[in-house]
Specification:
The complex is a heterodimer. Chain A is an alpha/beta fold. Chain A has helices at about 10-15, 20-40, 45-65, 65-80, 90-100, 115-120, 120-125, 135-145, 160-170, 180-200, 225-230, 250-265, 290-295, 310-315, 320, 335-345, 360-365, 370-385, 390-405, 405-425, 450-455, and strands at about 80-85, 105-110, 130-135, 200-205, 210, 215-220, 235-240, 245, 270-275, 280-290. Classes of the chains: A alpha/beta, B alpha/beta.
Amino acid sequence: MIQEEKKHAELAAHFNRDEGRVDWHDRTLWWIRQKRDKAAQSLGDEWEQLRQNASDIKDHTLSNLHEYLTAFESAAMANGIRIHWANDAEEHNAIVLRILRERSVEQVVKSKSMLTEECQLNEYLLARGIEVVDTDLGEHIVQLAGETPSHIVLPCIHWKKEEIGILFHEHLKTPAGLSDPVQLTYAARLHLREKFLTRRAAITGVNFAVAETGEFVVCTNEGNADMGVHLADVHIACMGIEKLIPRRADLGVFLRLLGRSATGQPITTYSSHFIRPGVGQQVHVVLVDNGRTRQLAREGFRNSLKCIRCGACFNTCPVYRRSGGHSYHTAIAGPIGSILSPNLDMRKHADLPFASTLCGSCTNVCPVKIDIHDQLYQWRQVLTKEGHAPVTKTLSMKVMATILSHPVLFLMTGTFMRRIMRWFPFILNHRFNVWSKQREMPLPPKESFTEWYKKQRK
Amino acid sequence: MNSREEILGRIQQVRISPLPLPVVYGNSLLEPDIETFRQTLESIGGRCFILKDMDEVMPLAVSLFPDVQVVVSGLAQMNQYTLPRRYDQKPHMLENAGLVLLEGRLAVSENGAVWLTEADMIVRVLPFIGEHLVVVVRSSDLVATMHDAYRKIGEGDHGFGVFISGPSKTADIEQSLVLGAHGPRTMTVMLVNES
């Protein structure tokens, strides 16, 4: 069944029906942005130095990706870690399934991995008889609700505590009406502890993989990745190929930037470094392409691959704050998602680079200095050239181009429009003119600048 | 051609002028500072005590956690609680650990973190599974920043290591900070001045 794919504007309009809720969502995310600012400013001049260093490290790594991937593979394998390569989401999911089936595993715990969201791993495994429990509290909440995360760091930022209370009452049997975050979290702690203690396989993401040593790092605040992995026989770590960094020492730079950029804390509670498998344990790393090599080849968009998934761009973006992650209809929303997703499916995500005011705030907060707003603008050009812009837009731009390039036509159109708008103002102030939805057209001047100038010269 | 070759092949086809690798970052001018460590740790929900010597650890732990039932320790000084080797095979048996005391290799003043390797944890799940966590670090092992930490860690020979900064936490429910998500509900660092 083909469902009509809704675009950002329509989904955002839906989100905006509850203005009070939008204001709350907006305020909450801006508050997180402010925490980030405080943390960044506490480092003084060093903040910008760290950003530059991180950006340079990532730029360098992307320009030598072949060398670093093979180095990582060798070092990791020498440590007893098994490496798998997946061209796309389908292959990634099939690899994970195969590993689980080989160990006769039917129940898995999973900590946060946006890559597995991108590949839609949960649905794939569920359809093949494997239960996946998302153990990050926010992800668990959206999982219970049958939703996808709306933010890469704060998965259920769009949920109110009363609503979570109702959800937990249904699924975790907490008392009706309970909405206290401490008690709800404690209920989730008990509920998920049972999963950690009984599941034999754990899936995690990878925040950073170090080519020099073959190790990888997983960062959490909750400790759910570690509780899952250290109680399991099998650890599957899913990783985009762009997550590499060259040296162990480089972790110092990235771990100082990540927590501060994401939530304003100096570091996540747990930064776990996996080098060798635990006693009696199998560790697998799945290296995933899924369009990353294609993005690598796009010179103008290549450095979007520097992203360390901190979410700072989401928190600052006025459009994201007031439209919510689900308006972006893609695993990774917000500004970074809008420059990554068109690479995955140009037709489906053509609207995203246009869901922006190009204010540049995202570029300003990005810890690895991705020129996000420049890329948003470039994508608009690419998408329009490829024929993905709406017909109304391309047609009206062609008409404008014609008018603007013919002086006589320009003058005539100007005179005509000024008269029409004076005599029949309702002609443009109606609901069919998208521009007048929350705006009134300004009153037309009595004469154009050219007319005034000619008068003056007499 | 398998997936590995396909992916590496696609990468090689992209012509990128190699960009230089910056030297390892180490510009930080910060000095290790006990007060900064304490304040940062406290601001994220942890506790910090400064002790004269290792003999003070046990009495302090007892006074902080008088009602705890199961104590597991990786400290030589508290070997009446030391974990028997059989826990290697069945880490799940630790699920009722009330208080876990471990020794850390270093502490970082800029973020209130301590670093433990597998050898310090005895069993990898131990720092995460207990209700309360206490980590003892010598104050001479306090460093200023993560860069200093990685310099000190060097190549290491650990199969697993972790930076732990404060108690387990989440703010997923309407941004209300809750301590004790899945890991320890409290986290205490004891900095010992004895060298």
